[in-house]
């Protein structure tokens, strides 16, 4: 692809675990980070020497965990490892940051290495809700961290928010949105709270927010953010003109990416593979000079096609029929005639000569739509 | 052939969970009939299902030698009996094959409903009862109270009971000796014409029907001609034998012997349980008493989940029927569920077993409709129909009267719960019959109840309202006319025939309302509103709506999530596929059983 491949780096350390989070992470410790960074460097070099094969990186995303949980020197080393990948001059480089862990020094290191997009995990500005979520920072701290980011020179900054939290009223959510908008972010991700298996929320059997309220909050977000110039471009993502997250767009277009770090997933040429979801195993593999891959999945043509539709329909602009034809050799309407007819009848999708997309109602029923495109008998 | 005088034929009868199977195991262990290596708990219960549920469904006789303290050897035949009311006819046939029975009673529980039902049945057959008070190892054992109950209720001698713990083996030698001393040997003469009772039969793929028989008089050997009385068919005997660990061929079975017979009988329906085998050339003048042609009491529709599996379902039912003469089925077509079968069973347990075996042993995924009883419809022209499905009920204008089966229910309960039981029985349209004290604190209550109420939820409610103390047994009485109507269910405006039920008119409103509420909770939200209505004829009596699905979306789906999230959706799709599409609406399997789960 002309845009280059995506590079994801998983930093599996947090100072504390949020109650809703099911991403792989461990408590921060200097020793573990040292071993991790060493392993990460080996992994990076293995891929660069034997796999990269002239490909360039078009976008980088450092996520976690909490990348900024690392100390300054550790962060510096991390960036140094990533910087050895050949990357395009216009590459997007995002780093996830946590208000608690952010300092001027860390910000300046990131900026120096060429990180050009900062994604701040704000979640809410309401201290009670933050505490309920297991966040260890306050709303004020989040705002201060935001300003620090701007001062450090980041002119592309995003923040994450969560709605549908039990106890969060529509008004409270509205307030959070207004406070977020006041920071003039370039991008906002607004996620409906999902109670994921294995999280503390799931263990506590937290009863979810009433559906009606969550839907209302979703519409409020659409309304407020659109008015503020942040246009919805994906089910949970909003951006100003020119500030969509290119790395994530790459996922939704089902393009290739390499994932480094424990539990990271890579996808290239009909194959998807996943690294060990365990820090010790990840480190041990690399100490022996092996790739720490623990799962491989062949993505058949049929699956690739279904996944392409499933992912592209998350985008507001939907799926380009031309791209689909180029990639799979037939028009989407030929590939799924009855499905498209049925979904149109129920008003869940819209189709014109150029694109297939979810209707406004369909955006909230994306699973029902995506499911219809999946093969009947999964292997 | 053993001398008839040394034969003892007996069975073990008990209320469920009073330790019948464990005692059988201990007896076999004690006499060395099975080596330790071969001993498994409940050796007599062969089917996996029986082991899992801890119940006996099918009979499996066993023969073993007992040596008395004086060195005298006896030939014991132990005939195991099913411990569930569904199979009471089989129990009665097993009893008819014996001269005596061990009546096992839990020392901590005392006499329960099935203890009584089985004991009365044994006394009707003139069997010698040896009361065994089991579970003496339990701290709560109260043998004196149980003895008193045995005396007061069953009139058994106060010193006749043997105290035992099947768990520890205590009392087992005494039981074995009591069998020799108290149970009389069989009486029949070898010189009399042959009369053998079929008390069970099995189908073997290679040998045809294997009839389990008890020779009452005369003798039987290979090469001999025989006749099955009820089917009036003649066969030549290929083999006779006895039951050790396996079937052991012998040259001849004489009076009192328990064994098996193979005679090239191709169809199990030609050698039915309870039938008499005789010699066509020297026939007895009349068959052995008590033969009954079993008729199914409970019916349900069984449909393949996938239309393509129809033939597989038919074949599986046919195979089950080879071994189960009480299972009846005929093809049925439902507008909602497509092609399937209306099946008849002896009772609810029998139904559950068949459904489970279809799924487990034959791998057929089935949709079962809620069970119903068989109704007798008298049409305006005077014609009487037996109707096994609510969907088949003629229009109201053609019905003169509708009769439903009633049973006599025997309930044993601590007297604190008399009020609760009577209230429940009243609610369930029961007619009071009798009440008597078993001992100072427990009573025996008898009610005549519509069988449909028992099929519905009577037993569950009885258990919950008596905190599990009540035990229940019942037997069919007669069909009695009632004020019954058909309740139809409409989903998205379409009547779903498989959901129709027959209810008492006075309770139609209430049941209709509960049923639509239950269905609303069971039918998942679809992409549109789905009205659910209950109707009698054209009159809608209850309505609920399943609101259209509004939100079903993953908040996040990035590179690391694709496989996991896709699999999530695949599972969701699989779940939808398992539902039955009725019109535009996807209905989960549980919905067809909803009528049973209304609470």
Task: Describe this entry's structure for a reader.
The complex is a heterodimer of chains A (379) and B (599). With 379 residues, chain A is α/β, with parallel strands linked by helices. In chain A, 42% of the residues lie in helices and 22% in strands. In chain A, strands 9-10-8-7-6-5-4-1-11 form a 9-stranded mixed sheet, sandwiched between helices. Chain A has a 3-stranded antiparallel sheet with strand order 12-13-14, with no helix packed on it. A 3-stranded antiparallel sheet of chain A has the order 15-17-16. In chain A, a hairpin with a 3-residue loop joins strand 16 and strand 17. In chain A, helix 1 runs parallel beside helix 2 and helix 11 runs antiparallel to helix 16. The longest helix of chain A is centred in the first third of the chain and has 21 residues. The radius of gyration of chain A is 21 Å and the shape is globular. Chain A starts with a strand and ends in a 6-residue tail after the last helix. By secondary structure, chain B is an alpha+beta fold. Helix content of chain B is 26%, strand content 34%. In chain B, the strands form 7 sheets. In chain B, strands 11-10-16-7-8-15-12-13 form an 8-stranded antiparallel sheet. In chain B, helix 9 packs antiparallel against helix 10. At the A-B interface, strand 1, helix 8, helix 9, helix 11 and helix 16 of A face helix 12 of B.
List the helices and strands and how they pair.
The complex is a heterodimer of chains A (379) and B (599).
Chain A: E1 5-11, E2 13-14, E3 26-27, H1 30-50, E4 57-64, H2 72-83, E5 87-97, H3 104-113, E6 117-123, H4 127-133, H5 139-151, E7 157-163, H6 170-182, E8 187-192, H7 200-203, H8 211-227, E9 231-234, E10 237-239, H9 246-252, E11 257-260, E12 265-268, E13 271-275, H10 279-287, E14 293-298, H11 301-312, E15 319-320, H12 321-328, H13 332-335, H14 337-345, E16 349-351, E17 355-358, H15 360-363, H16 366-373
Parallel strand pairs in A: 1-4, 1-11, 2-3, 4-5, 5-6, 6-7, 7-8
Antiparallel strand pairs in A: 8-10, 9-10, 12-13, 13-14, 15-17, 16-17
Chain B: E1 7-14, H1 20-30, H2 48-53, E2 62-67, E3 73-79, H3 88-96, E4 100-106, H4 113-124, E5 128-134, H5 143-154, E6 162-163, H6 172-182, E7 195-204, E8 208-217, E9 220-221, E10 225-228, E11 233-236, E12 239-243, E13 247-250, E14 252-253, E15 258-262, E16 276-278, E17 298-304, H7 310-322, E18 328-334, E19 338-345, H8 348-361, E20 366-368, E21 372-373, E22 375-379, E23 384-387, E24 399-414, H9 418-427, E25 431-437, E26 442-450, H10 451-465, E27 471-482, E28 484-491, E29 494-495, E30 501-504, H11 505-522, E31 530-536, E32 539-546, H12 562-577, E33 580-582, E34 585-587, H13 589-592, H14 594-597
Parallel strand pairs in B: 1-3, 1-4, 4-5, 5-6
Antiparallel strand pairs in B: 2-3, 7-8, 7-16, 8-15, 9-14, 10-11, 10-16, 12-13, 12-15, 17-19, 17-20, 17-21, 18-19, 22-23, 22-24, 24-26, 24-27, 25-26, 28-29, 28-30, 28-31, 31-32, 33-34
Helix pairs in contact in B: 9-10
């Amino acid at each position: 692809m002309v845009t280059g491949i995506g590079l994801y780096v998983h930093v599996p350390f947090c100072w504390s675990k949020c109650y809703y989070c099911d991403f792989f992470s461990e408590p921060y410790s200097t020793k573990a980070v040292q071993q991790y960074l060493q392993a990460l460097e080996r992994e990076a070099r293995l891929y660069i020497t034997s796999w990269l094969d002239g490909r360039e990186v078009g976008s980088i995303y450092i996520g976690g965990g909490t990348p900024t949980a690392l100390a300054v020197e550790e962060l510096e080393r991390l960036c140094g490892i990533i910087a050895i990948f050949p990357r395009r001059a216009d590459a997007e480089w995002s780093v996830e940051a946590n208000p608690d862990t952010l300092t001027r020094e860390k910000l300046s290191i990131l900026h120096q290495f060429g990180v050009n997009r900062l994604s701040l995990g704000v979640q809410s500005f309401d201290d009670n809700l933050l505490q309920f979520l297991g966040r260890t920072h306050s709303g004020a701290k989040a705002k201060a961290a935001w300003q620090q980011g701007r001062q450090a020179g980041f002119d592309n900054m995003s923040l994450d928010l969560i709605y549908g939290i039990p106890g969060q009223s529509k008004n409270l959510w509205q307030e959070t949105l207004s406070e977020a908008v006041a920071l003039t972010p370039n991008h906002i991700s607004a996620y409906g709270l999902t109670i994921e298996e294995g999280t503390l929320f799931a263990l506590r059997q937290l009863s979810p927010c009433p559906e009606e309220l969550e839907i209302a909050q979703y519409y409020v977000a659409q309304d407020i953010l659109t008015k503020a110039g942040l246009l919805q471009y994906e089910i949970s993502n909003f951006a100003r003109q020119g500030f969509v997250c290119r790395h994530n767009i790459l996922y939704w277009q089902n393009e290739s990416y390499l994932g480094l770090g424990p539990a990271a997933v890579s996808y290239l040429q009909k194959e998807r593979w996943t690294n060990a979801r365990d820090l010790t195993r990840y480190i041990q593999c690399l100490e022996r000079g092996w790739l720490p891959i623990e799962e491989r999945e062949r993505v058949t043509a049929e699956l690739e096609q279904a996944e392409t539709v499933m992912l592209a329909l998350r985008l507001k602009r939907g799926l380009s029929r031309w791209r689909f034809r180029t990639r799979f050799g037939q028009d989407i309407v030929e590939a799924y005639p009855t499905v498209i007819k049925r979904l149109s009848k129920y008003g869940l999708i819209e189709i014109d000569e150029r694109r297939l997309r979810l209707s406004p109602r369909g955006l909230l029923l994306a699973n029902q739509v995506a499911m219809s495109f999946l093969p009947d008998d999964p292997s | 052939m053993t001398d008839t005088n040394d034969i003892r034929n007996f069975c073990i009868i008990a209320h469920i969970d009073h330790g019948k199977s464990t005692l059988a195991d201990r007896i076999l262990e004690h006499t060395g009939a099975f080596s330790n290596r071969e001993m498994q708990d409940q050796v007599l219960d062969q089917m996996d299902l029986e082991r899992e549920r801890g119940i006996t469904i099918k009979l499996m006789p066993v023969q073993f030698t007992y040596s008395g303290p004086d060195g005298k050897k006896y030939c014991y035949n132990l005939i195991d009996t099913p411990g569930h009311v569904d199979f009471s006819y089989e129990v009665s046939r097993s009893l008819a094959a014996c001269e005596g029975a061990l009546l096992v009673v839990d020392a901590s529980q005392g006499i329960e409903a099935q203890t009584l039902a089985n004991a009365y049945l044994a006394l009707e057959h003139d069997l010698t009862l040896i009361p065994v008070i089991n579970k003496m190892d339990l701290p709560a054992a109260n043998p004196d109270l149980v003895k008193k109950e045995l005396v007061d209720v069953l009139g058994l001698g106060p010193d006749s009971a043997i105290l035992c713990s099947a768990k520890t083996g205590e009392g087992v030698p005494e039981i074995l000796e009591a069998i020799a001393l108290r149970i009389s040997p069989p009486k029949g003469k070898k010189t009399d014409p042959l009369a053998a009772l079929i008390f069970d039969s099995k189908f073997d793929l290679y040998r045809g029907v294997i009839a389990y028989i008890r020779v009452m008089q005369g003798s039987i050997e290979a090469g001999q001609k025989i006749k099955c009385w009820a089917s009036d068919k003649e066969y030549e005997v290929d083999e006779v034998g006895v039951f050790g660990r396996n079937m052991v061929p012998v040259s001849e079975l004489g009076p009192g012997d328990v064994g098996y017979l193979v005679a090239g009988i191709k169809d199990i329906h030609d050698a039915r349980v309870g039938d008499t085998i005789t010699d066509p050339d020297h026939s007895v003048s009349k068959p052995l008493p008590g033969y009954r042609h079993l008729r199914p009491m409970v019916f349900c529709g069984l449909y393949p989940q996938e239309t393509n599996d129809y033939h597989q379902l038919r074949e599986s039912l046919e195979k089950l029927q080879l071994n189960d003469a009480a299972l009846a089925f005929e093809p049925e077509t439902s507008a909602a569920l497509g092609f399937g079968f209306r099946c008849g069973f002896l009772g609810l347990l029998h139904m559950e077993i068949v459904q489970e075996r279809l799924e487990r042993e034959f791998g057929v995924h089935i949709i079962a409709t809620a069970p119903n009883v068989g109704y007798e419809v008298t049409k305006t022209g005077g014609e009487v129909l037996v109707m096994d499905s609510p969907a088949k009920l003629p229009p109201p204008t053609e019905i003169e009267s509708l009769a439903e089966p009633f049973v006599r229910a025997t309930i044993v309960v601590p007297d604190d719960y008399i009020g609760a039981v009577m209230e429940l029985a009243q609610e369930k349209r029961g007619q009071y019959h009798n009440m008597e004290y078993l001992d100072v604190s427990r009573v025996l209550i008898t009610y005549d109840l519509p069988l449909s109420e028992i099929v519905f939820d009577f037993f569950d409610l009885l258990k919950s309202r008596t905190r599990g103390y009540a035990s229940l047994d019942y037997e069919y009485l007669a069909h009695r006319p009632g004020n019954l109507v058909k309740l139809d269910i409409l989903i998205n405006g379409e009547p779903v025939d498989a959901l129709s039920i027959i209810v008492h008119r006075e309770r139609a409103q209430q049941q209709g309302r509960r049923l639509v509420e239950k269905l609303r909770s069971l039918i998942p939200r679809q992409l549109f509103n789905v009205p659910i209505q209950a109707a009698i004829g054209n009159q809608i009596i209850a309505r609920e709506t399943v609101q259209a699905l509004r939100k079903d979306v993953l908040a996040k789906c990035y590179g690391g999530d694709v496989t996991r999230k896709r699999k999530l959706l695949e599972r969701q799709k699989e779940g939808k596929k398992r539902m039955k599409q009725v019109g535009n609406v996807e209905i989960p399997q549980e919905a067809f059983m909803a009528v049973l789960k209304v609470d």
